[in-house]
Amino acid sequence: MSETPVVPVAALLDAVDRCRYAAARLERTRAAAGHTSITEREALRYLRAASARGEPCTPKQLGEHLGITTPSMTSLLDRLEASGFLTRVPNPTDRRSSYVQLTLAAPDRDDTDPLAAHIAALCAAIPLADAEIITRFLIDLAALHPTTTTRTGTVQETQ
């Protein structure tokens, strides 16, 4: 009977830390090069997903997803609209509201992420059962909320 090697938790934590550091380093490189910000890319990703589901998206929905204020959302939409990535269209059922939608000029993942093709190749090489486990782990990891630890060692959630 052969046993499947188990990755120790410490090695997994180290790998997560290395991924977080690499992502931060890539983000600093993008910012220095004047490319789209992480918030802009997440807004575009969210709008692509909403469009793929056939769901309209309001600026309020997008702002809530991004966790940004109304003035910040307005600035973000102004920048993305000026860059030709999206447009605001009237909501046919509510004159006070509008929808945000991608334009044909909106970049796809490969345009906004120089590693997208490499990541896709790595993902394609993972066996289906492992991919399901990794997917669940990454979704759970992404869903974590920022916390702070007090001097007494208790953890408090921040808003």
Can you offer a commentary on this structure?
The chain is an alpha+beta fold and 159 residues long. The protein has a two-stranded antiparallel sheet. The protein has a two-stranded antiparallel ribbon with strand order 3-4. 56% of the residues lie in helices and 13% in strands. It has two domains: 7-36; 37-157, Orthogonal Bundle (Arc Repressor Mutant, subunit A), CATH 1.10.10. The longest helix is centred in the first third of the chain and has 25 residues, at 9-33. It has helices at 9-33, 38-52, 59-66, 70-82, 109-112, 116-124, 128-142; strands at 86-91, 94-102, 147-149, 155-157. Helix 3 (59-66) crosses helix 4.
Summarize the structure.
By secondary structure, the protein is of the alpha+beta class. The protein is 56% helix and 13% strand. Strand 1 (86-91) and strand 2 (94-102) form a beta hairpin.
